[in-house]
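User: What would this chain look like folded?
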Amino acid sequence: MIQFMLLFSRQGKLRLQKWYNAITDKSKKKITRELITTVLARKPKMSSFLEWRDLKIIYKRYASLYFCVAVEPNDNELLTLELIHRYVELLDKYFGSVCELDIIFNFEKAYFMLDELLLGGEIQETSKKNVLKSIADQDLLQEEQDVSRSVLEELGLS
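Assistant: Here's the prediction, encoded as structure tokens.
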């Protein structure tokens, strides 16, 4: 089971975090700081898997972002690496060649995609097509709400 997922830049700025266990904010900050420092200190040719505390850390760098996932010791590293890749493919397909700014300015979409892909730290949906359809449906719903809100504002009823 996935314990948490972090996205951070090469400069060490946290861009997205998703925790699947109840942990105090103080512990989250400490874990995040330690992991970012550990991963950024590693050389590019080193393995993307590392043992850290009682967890396995699997990370992958795409452009200027690191995608870092912590799993239980008995979980499959390659499956986790594939999950990271699937998430990046979804982001790429939705944003059209995703970059760090897409994550910064559309973080709610990035979280929504992650929530469609994972549920409670386990894989919920493996089909990219189904996840993208859910996101398109949500975008359509949001657009309809925006249109109805603007009509009400024009009529002075908001």
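The chain has a mean pLDDT of 91. If you want, I can go into more detail on any region.
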